[in-house]
Amino acid sequence: MSTNRTPIPFSRESLEQVLKRRFFFAPSFEIYGGVSGLYDYGPPGCAFQANVVDTWRKHFILEEDMLEVDCTMLTPHEVLKTSGHVDKFADWMCRDLKTGEIFRADHLVEEVLEARLKGDKAARGVATEEGEEEDADKKKRKKKVKEIKSVKLDDDVVKEYENVLAQIDGYSGSQLGELMTKYKINNPATDGPLELPIEFNLMFETAIGPSGQLKGYLRPETAQGQFLNFSKLLDCNNEKMPFASASIGKSFRNEISPRAGLLRVREFLMAEIEHYVDPEDKSHSRFDEIKDIKLKFLPKNVQESGSNELTEKSIDDAVSSGMVDNETLGYFLARIYLFLIKIGVDPSRLRFRQHMSNEMAHYAADCWDAELQTSYGWIECVGCADRSAYDLSVHSARTNEKLVVRQPLPEPVLVEKYEVNIAKKKFGPKFRKDAGTVENWLLARTQCELEDLSKELNENNKIVFKIDSIPDSIELDTEFVKIEKVKRTEHIREFTPNVIEPSFGIGRILYSVFEHQFWARPEDKDRTVLSLPPLVAPTKVLLVPLSSNAELQPIVKKISAFLRKEQVPFKVDDSSASIGKRYARNDELGTPFGITIDFDSVKDESVTLRDRDSTKQVRGSLEDIVKAIKDITYNNVSWTEGTSKLTPFDSQSEA
Ligand SMILES: Nc1ncnc2c1ncn2[C@@H]1O[C@H](COP(=O)(O)OP(=O)(O)OP(=O)(O)O)[C@@H](O)[C@H]1O
Predict the structure, then answer these.
(1) Measuring from each residue's beta carbon to the nearest atom of ligand 1, which residues come in under 6 Å?
(2) What is the structure's pLDDT at 70?
(3) Rounded to the nearest whole angstrom, what is the distance from the C-alpha of residue 12 to the centroid of ligand 1?
(4) CA of 622 to the centre of ligand 1 (A)
(5) Mutate-to-test residue for ligand 1 from 106, 268, 269, 504, highest number of ligand atoms within 8 A of CB
(6) Residue nearest to ligand 1 atom 5, measured at CA
(7) What is the predicted pLDDT for the residue at 9?
(8) How far apart are CA 339 and CA 523, in angstroms?
(9) Are 349 and 364 in contact (CB under 8 A)?
């Protein structure tokens, strides 16, 4: 990284101009006025994303020998009903019945309370936090917010607000409604009253096929496709455990109020891992390799006490103290950290936040988000959850397909377990075409469910339950079914694996890296640079002929052919702009190296290599220069080390 990089106040406006000017990304359908939450990536954005995804594949899929799948985005209703998304994948929205404006309830509470705290700080003459810039939308809204005037709050109220904000991700709809009433939160623009929060499902609904009868959704995550292929994947892995599947693909969420550019969009690229592990042994065979890595943690008890103070600990300490639930989860937190650093995340602006008890799904054993600090605040970019056996169990129960691992036991064991005995002959006449479905439903129950059913049968002499595909409730007495605890000698251990799921939103990560790597040359604040790591930079080399003299053309062609052969992504800039301007253009594109071709190059094929960040230059043969570029880009070699055998070159002014 540059030795010249001095901290200057980050300007989001300036970054946005660069990203737009160089077409990293832009609103989709822009000439039609655009649609909120939808973006197209331009050439440098595409190349950057492709390189990040390539690094992700190498870092996780290849390094960890994961099984990659590519599943469909269109998903039938039944699958997402079973997974819980149809009923629960929702955010809370509230409407202003007069103006029709819609707000996401938690974001509204957060924005208003933050604004009031800012007003309070202003009244007390305290400077507001640096780096918390506001996007245009937020600014527009805030302009109209009457209460952002500097109004001093009581100390108790400040404490209360801070406490609410620390836990903002964990509130239910009714709790948000209570907060809105308690703190008199109205439409910030008009001060008009708002409806209490109602649930809004975030999935895009569609119909599959012309009849319109097969209801479906665009998937909101890639995970379900991986779970449904579990048995095939286990087979691919020769039935060996633990193992992981992985998938990279688009997901869709009909966000209530998309905002903050790439950070909250309606269609985005996800990279997800489902690591299947024995529930009785969540150790990880490679834990030793990462155990000493130190991470910054924000545990749930700290947030629940209204604070956001970070604790720095090694992963080893975090797991052995029980703060992180198990070794495998800890292993992935460290691997996530290493990946993010590799692609340009600033480690000092990365923290791992644990989900609070009321935020975490009831089945999850533990959950941590990798959050990156940006001018929009701390943003969740990677979720990493131990989802226990939930997903495989629910799909198994719904389809009656066993999604389990069967392992021969070293010694037979005597076990006590619940078994279902069905009076098959009576099922046919009672249930007719549904007899098989009811039978399979009973046989697919887990031991815990059987324990409950057995109790119910003993106490009431009957059990009553509901199966989705059968309209009426089903009632069975002991003539039809017996559920009893029996002793059996077993030679095989059968279990449903637990799943540890690291889930990456690529767009959020890309944007955070832009912010973390954007700076301006101290001598001129308009000469901005995107210091993307060479590994992921869209183009590695800018080829710059010193002049447009025809004499240089053959050597430019020759060097281009050599770079192509060596598979180094490059661009030629033979425009008439000054050399400094040409470099400046590429500094904004994040191109880490410049190769300058001059009249000496014609004589001896030597060239000059320029480093984007330090603007240092060295001279050498084309072969040696390309070797240095490849070493620095792909082999993690520093500029100093990579160019140590090349001749330092006096760089002229780049003005
Ligand atoms: N609307 C979105 N736009 C861009 N990326 C997203 C969006 N929603 C989720 N992601 C990304 O997908 C990852 C995994 O999704 P997950 O369901 O855990 O997010 P989430 O908890 O719903 O996010 P949030 O609370 O911010 O809406 C997130 O860490 C994030 O990087």
Answers:
(1) 253, 255, 264-265, 268, 270, 380-383, 503, 505, 507-508
(2) 98
(3) 22
(4) 45
(5) 268
(6) 505
(7) 78
(8) 33
(9) no
List Cβ neighbours of 358 (8 Å cut-off, separation of 6 or more).
Answer: 167, 170, 171, 172
Residue 105: burial class (beta carbons within 10 Å; 0-12, 13-18, 19+) = buried
Helix (H, G, I), strand (E, B) or coil at 382: strand
Q: From the centroid of its chain, how far is CA 184?
A: 34
pLDDT for res 359: 87
Q: Return the residue matching tokens 């594109």.
A: 589
Ligand 1 center from residue 510 Cα (angstroms):
14
How many Cβ atoms from other residues are within 10 Å of residue 511's Cβ? Answer: 24
Looking at residue 3, what is its pLDDT? 46
Residue having the nearest C-alpha atom to atom 27 of ligand 1: 264
Pocket test for ligand 1, best of 56, 107, 274, 380 (most atoms within 8 A of CB): 380
pLDDT at 363: 85
Separation of CA 251 and ligand 1 centre (Å): 10
Over its C-alpha atoms, the chain yields an Rg (Å, rounded) of: 29
Task: DSSP for 127-179, please give it.
Answer: PPPTT----HHHHHHHHH-GGGS--PPPHHHHHHHHHHHHTGGG--HHHHHHH
Residues of the chain with pLDDT under 70: 1-8, 127-149, 651-655
Q: How far is the CA of 380 from the centre of ligand 1 (A)?
A: 7
- Cβ contact 159:306 at 8 Å: yes
Tokens encoding 168? 């903002």
DSSP line for 561-629: HHHHHTT--EEE--SSS-HHHHHHHHHHTT--EEEEE-HHHHHH-EEEEEETTT--EEEEEHHHHHHHH
pLDDT the model gives residue 109: 95
Q: Which residues pair with 399 in a beta bridge?
A: none
* DSSP assignment string, 518-564: EEEETTEEEEEEE---TTT-S-SEEEEESS--GGGHHHHHHHHHHHH
CA of 289 to the centre of ligand 1 (A): 29
Compute the distance between CA of residue 583 and CA of residue 597 in angstroms, rounded to an integer: 13
Domains of the chain, each with CATH number or no CATH: 12-71+219-390+500-504 (3.30.930.10), 90-201 (3.30.40.230), 411-492 (3.30.720.200), 539-648 (3.40.50.800)
Q: What is the pLDDT of residue 564?
A: 97
**Ligand 1 center to 90 CA (angstroms):** 13
- pLDDT for 522 equals 87
Q: What is the pLDDT of residue 147?
A: 47
Instruction: For 563-620, write each residue's pLDDT tens digit.
Output: 999 999 999 998 989 999 999 999 999 999 999 999 999 999 899 999 999 999 999 9
Q: Could you tell me the pTM of the whole model? A: 0.88
Rounded Cα distance between 515 and 521, Å, is: 15
In this structure, the residue with its CA closest to atom 24 of ligand 1 is 380
* Residue of 367, 508, 513 with the most ligand 1 atoms within 8 Å of its CB, for mutation: 508
**Closest ligand 1 atom to 262 CA:** 4
Residue indicated by tokens 């997974």: 83
